[in-house]
Specification:
With 284 residues, the protein is an alpha+beta fold. It has helices at 5-8, 26-36, 52-71, 89-125, 165-205, 215-230, 236-249, 254-259, 261-282; strands spanning 9-17, 22-24, 46-48, 74-75, 82-85, 145-152. It has 2 domains: 5-152, no CATH class; 156-282. The protein has 9 helices and 6 strands, in the order αββαβαββαβααααα. The strands form 2 sheets. Strands 4-5-1-6 form a 4-stranded antiparallel sheet, sandwiched between helices. It has a two-stranded antiparallel sheet with strand order 2-3. The longest helix has 41 residues, at 165-205. 23% of the residues are buried.
Length: 284
């Protein structure tokens, strides 16, 4: 891992919290166990405090932000942080600002309707309704947050501590090894993204009866567009493969692939050839 990697990337962390809108009802659970004479681990009764349709917009906005975050970054460790190459910082930042705005708008709409939703729950839950299980109207907004954090990528050279030189060198080598492993994993993640999109196209187009959506082509366009920005290791083969995939698999429109059997066969063959080549690079 060369020191300049630190200048080419950072760590991005996305944290979203939201009101779940459901809760286990212990009394109802005990009642069911008693009625049917079940064992302790037979099941639990979970109440839907707020109608699912009412919180769908917030949940969808949160899920959309997470999907975008993962698509625009690379794996790092299991602590929630993801590698964000500097080349993709502007696109990521602008996209996340839009996702945050969508989330906040959905939250504001939900908070405004929250008192009415509690009244609706009284009828819907009937005897299971318990007002004490609902956050106060004045504090419900505190259950929601959308936070993006950017941190520098840790490097072995940054490690300084009052230990003898041998111990410091050993720890620095461990940091270097972990960082190098993470970079390799990030590169492999990009290969897998491309391989998945091409494999899906191969499977669909090689089946004359298969029906497919326009996303079969747009997925190729999206992954081949983002690979150069996320290619932290400057993997020349990966960049070349992405260019080939874009040129050979997106030349025909979805409509042409559906209606012209020759275009379909030609593109399917190109996808198969790309998969065979990628298999060698990915160690398959």
């Amino acid at each position: 891992m060369s020191p300049e990697i630190k200048q080419k990337a950072m760590l991005a962390r996305l944290t979203i919290t939201q009101f779940a809108g459901n809760k286990q009802d212990k009394a109802a659970t005990d009642s069911v166990k008693e009625k049917f004479q079940t064992g302790q681990d037979a099941g639990r009764y979970n109440k839907t405090l707020i109608a699912k349709a009412a919180i769908k917009a917030v949940s969808s906005a949160a899920n959309g932000a997470r999907i975008f975050h993962y698509a625009q970054t690379l794996p790092w460790k299991d602590d929630g942080a993801r590698i964000l190459p500097a080349a993709n910082f502007l696109q990521y930042s602008e996209g996340m600002r839009q996702k945050k705005a969508t989330f906040q708008a959905a939250v504001q709409k939900f908070v405004a309707s929250y008192p009415d939703l509690i009244e609706e729950a009284k009828t819907r839950l009937a005897g299971l309704f318990n007002v004490n299980e609902y956050p106060d109207v004045n504090s419900i907004s505190d259950k929601y947050s959308f936070d993006m954090q950017i941190d520098p990528l840790p490097m072995a050279a940054d490690f300084r501590v009052d230990l003898n030189s041998a111990e410091v060198d050993a720890i620095r080598k461990q940091i270097e090894a972990r960082t190098d492993q993470a970079t390799k994993a990030a590169t492999l993640d990009l290969w897998k993204r491309l391989n998945t999109a091409v494999e899906s196209m191969s499977e669909r187009l090689n089946d004359p009866k298969a029906i497919f959506h326009d996303t079969l082509v747009t997925n190729i366009e999206e992954v081949t567009e983002i690979i150069p920005r996320l290619n932290l290791a400057d993997d020349a083969a990966l960049d070349r493969m992405a260019k080939d995939a874009k040129a050979k698999l997106t030349a025909k429109t979805p409509k042409q692939l559906r209606e012209n059997i020759n275009d379909r066969k030609e593109t399917a063959k190109a996808a198969d050839d790309l998969l065979a080549t990628m298999a060698a690079y990915m160690g398959a």
